[in-house]
Structure formats: structure tokens, C-alpha cells
Amino acid sequence: MAVVTLGVHIVDVLARPVEAIPQGQDTVLVDQIRMTAAGSAAGTAVDLAKLGNEVISVGAIGDDELGDLLVAVMTRHGVDVSGLVRRTGDQTSATILPIRPDGGRPSFHVPGANLTVTASIVDPGLLTAAGAVHLGGPDVTFGLNDPAFFDALEAARASGTVVTMDLLSNMPDLVKGAAAFLPHVDYFLPNEEQALMMTGTGDPVLAARKLLAEGPRAVLITLGEHGSLVATTDGVERIPAIEVDVVDTTGCGDAYCAGFITGLMNDRDLGEAARWGTAAAATVAQGLGSDACLTGLDAVLALLD
After folding, report:
1. Which of 34, 74, 147, 297 has the least C-beta neighbours within 10 A?
2. Start and end of every Carbohydrate kinase PfkB domain (predicted)?
3. What does the alpha-carbon distance between residue 83 and residue 143 come to, in Å, rounded to a whole number?
4. Mean pLDDT score of the chain
5. Confidence (pLDDT) at 105
6. CATH numbers and ranges of domains, the chain
7. What's the longest Cα–Cα distance across the chain?
8. Residues 6+ apart with CB under 8 A from 222
9. Cβ atoms of 73 and 35 closer than 8 Å
10. Using CA atoms, how far apart are residues 142 and 111, in angstroms rounded to an integer?
11. Residue 151 CB: number of other CB atoms within 10 A?
């Protein structure tokens, strides 16, 4: 069954290594520049496809050259982009990321057409027919915060569709607004900063428990180099990170989601699916961009041996 990714679609342009922005019109030579499909829906969609899933992506992009590039990249990697709508009056969302030598990633970002996503672009039948639906960045695609969309999610869950959710931003008002989606998802996968921000706590375990009380079956919080934690009503499990040489952390959260969803689609239990997510994130961290180094599921799982 297909996985539907719904939400944020971004074109990322990345360069590494960048130690500083040059003065005036100076030029600095770098080792690598890449353009990738990114964002909590598009980036996850590409990673899911590379891990062997059938993927349909739904969202809004501009009727511009960046949109053409995004469609071409996603299609090249096997993602069905028939769910993307083209907006004439809005540009495709894009980010420029100068990656520091230590893997840090400051950014310059245009939200673009992502802000125009509403429930009207979503076919409820597509959600019901899917094996899983991943909400990628509903904190930014806040037009989905709509009773009609929540009804569609509930109908999909009743039919057996698994609903997962990840966030995009670190803006307090947007992150807190995404709490409205929690009663309608099965698995919520924020990073530590987002989880603490949503709950007003300083402890990720306490944050996970508070988020769990809002309705999800499980909350999985990614903790960077400290791995992740998986919280259910049965307790909290710590999943250690995999030590790798980090080049760029862009898209590691999307890769974690893709690996986790792939585990669920392969009937793995929650802890094992989280380990698949950990391995996918570790793979992506070793290269530049949100799908770096992903060549297939077998190579990812080899990191767990």
C-alpha cells in the first residue's frame, strides 16, 4: 500500500563547507553544491521512495522554474507527484543552506506556496486507501487545521491507515498551533526543541508524556547525537544514535521519519521501526542534503548489524 506524504515541499540549495559569508562581491570556492527536494513532506517522500516504498506526495508549489525542478527531482526518485498543485501567484518554497565544516546549517528561507495548502487540495479517498499518511509540517501548512480535514484523517484511521506527523519550524506560535493535530495522529515525531516548546517543559521525557496525553499512540522525540526516545503508555524506551562521521544534519529528521514509517510498513514493532529510523538518519548525516547517501533499505539496515 502507498504512503502519502502531505504538507511542506521545499527546494534546498546547499553548499559546503562554508565558514563565513564573503564580504562584498568576493568569491569563495567550496567542495560541493547540491539541490534537493526537501521539507517535511517532500524530503520524507524521496527518502521513503529510496527505501522501497510506493509514495504519493501532496502539497502546493509555485508555477515557476523552482517548481519544475522540484517535480523533476521527486519524479526521478520515484515519487508520484500527481498530488501537487501549482500556484500561479506564489513561488515554490526554497531554502539556501551554507553548511558549516562541523555540519551546522544556518539557512535563508522563503515559505512560498506552502502557506497556501488547505484541506481542499486533499482527496479524502487517497488518505483512506493509503497504508500510511505522513503529515509533514502542519505547523507551517496551518490551512490544514480544519475540521473537514480532521474528519478525513479520522475516516482514514478507521479504515486502517496509519497517520504519522513531523514538524518543520522552531517558531513557538507555529509549533504550539500544531497541537490541534495530535488527537488525529497515531505517531508524532518532533525533535527535542519542538517537543519542549510545545509543552513548556525542560525535560524530553516529561514532554513526551504530555504529548502522549493529547492522543497519539506513541511519541518519538529525536535527540540528535543522543539518539531518540519512544514513549507509549507502557513507558519510555531510549534508542541510541549510531556513530558516524557527520557531514550535514539537513534532513536527518525526515530520514528518521522515513525509516520509521518503512519499518511500520514492513510490520516491525515500534522499537525496531525506530531503529530503522535511526539508521536512515545516520545514513543521511554522512552526506550533503536531505537524501544524501541513501541507496536502498539494505544499506541502511546494515548499519544496525
Report:
1. 147
2. 14-294
3. 16
4. 96
5. 86
6. 3-20+31-302 (3.40.1190.20)
7. 58
8. 189, 190, 191, 192, 228, 252, 253, 256, 281
9. yes
10. 12
11. 13
Taking alpha carbons only, the member of 71, 21, 68, 12 closest to residue 40 is 12
pTM given for the model: 0.96
Count of C-beta atoms within a 10 Å radius of residue 226: 13
Please answer whether residues 115 and 7 qualify as being in contact, where contact means their C-beta atoms are separated by less than 8 angstroms. no
**Which amino acid belongs to residue 73?**
V
Please report the DSSP string for 53-83 in residue order.
--EEEEEEEESSHHHHHHHHHHHHTT-EEEE
Q: What is the pLDDT of residue 1?
A: 86
Q: Give yes or no for a contact between 2 and 129, defined as CB atoms under 8 angstroms apart.
A: yes
Which stretch of 56-65, 101-110, 203-212 has the lowest confidence by average pLDDT?
Answer: 101-110
Cell numbers placing 225: 547525537
DSSP SS3 for 244: coil
**What local confidence, expressed as pLDDT, does residue 267 receive?**
97
Given a cut of 90, is residue 305 above it in pLDDT?
no
Joined together, the cell numbers standing for residue 124 give: 479524502
Region 180-189: mean pLDDT is 98
Looking at residue 224, the DSSP 8-state letter turns out to be: G
Cis ω on the peptide bond leading into residue 147 (within 30° of 0)? no
First to last CA, the chain: 28
Alpha helices, H only, 80-146: 124-129
* 221 grid coordinates: 522525540
CA 169/CA 118 separation, integer angstroms:
18
**Whole-number Å distance between alpha carbons of 46 and 70:** 11
Distance in angstroms (rounded) separating the CA atoms of residues 107 and 119: 29
